[in-house]
UniProtKB/TrEMBL annotation:
Assigned protein family: Belongs to the EamA transporter family.
Name of this chain's protein: EamA domain-containing protein
Keyword Transmembrane listed: yes
Upper lineage: Bacteria, Bacillati, Actinomycetota, Actinomycetes, Kitasatosporales
Record has Transmembrane as a keyword: yes
Organism domain of life: Bacteria
GO CC annotations, alphabetized: membrane
UniProt entry keywords in alphabetical sequence: Membrane, Transmembrane, Transmembrane helix
One Pfam family this sequence matches: EamA
Ranges where the EamA domain occurs: 3-131, 144-285
Transmembrane segments: 28-49, 61-82, 114-132, 144-163, 169-195, 207-228, 240-262, 269-287
Amino acid sequence: MTALFALATSLLWGLADFGGGLMTRRAPALTVVVVSQAVAVVVLGAVVVATGGWSEAGSQLWFAVAAGAVGPVAMLCFYKALALGPMGVVSPLGSVGVAVPVTVGLVLGERPGLLQFAGIAVAVAGVVLASGPQLRGAPVQRQAIVLTLVAAVGFGAVLALIAEASTTLTGLFLALFVQRVTNVAVGGAALYVSVKRGAKALPENGGMRVILSSLPALAFVGLADVAANGTYSIAAQTGPVTVAAVLANLYPVVTVLCALVLLKERLRAVQAAGAGLAVVGTVLLAAG
């Protein structure tokens, strides 16, 4: 059950990242984040009301607030690092955030078996390679490395926090709603500051018309991200966090394969090898 929900998480996050990446070609990244998360807030709000999720409110919701505050900061650091580049180094380096929830699981007393330890090592190596690491070429700015590591820790912290935010299904809906509200608040504040400094909130060509015509795609990105957080929370509660976190972090493989199939991008040899290693690691984790 843990492996199934964790793999569903990687699929959903991979699709959300692919969709979000496409949308940032048409609109500013911060606008994509805020609008997609705002759509998720509306849908989750309706779900919480329909399921009576308000009755699950308690101190554990602070974990959801923390996850909602950390997420946009990590995302902004990651986007900034990608802008500084090279992407071939920044992207795979961002996957080291899996170390955070894995460490939390080990501290809490989880002890994966030998096969699972091997699976963790192989899967993480596969994710890094599948992201297409740039092994030569332009030097990497120190600032890009620092920002990427901050983002990676932030992404890992979100995984650890959301896993602690609820213990029931209705409570999970409420926790995800609180997380998204916080996401929108923090992201909206960052967007406001960005605009005050002269950045554009809307696409230069098309303006609001582009945003409105893209609402279905933005809704998909936001809801896929929400669903991924939900399936990860279930995976972490039904089995070892160390296993759930690694399997959930296979999402770069999904993003790469989407680019291969839908955008006809060519898969580099190192990426093909990484995808293969990720599959082998998944099998070892599930078998363990």
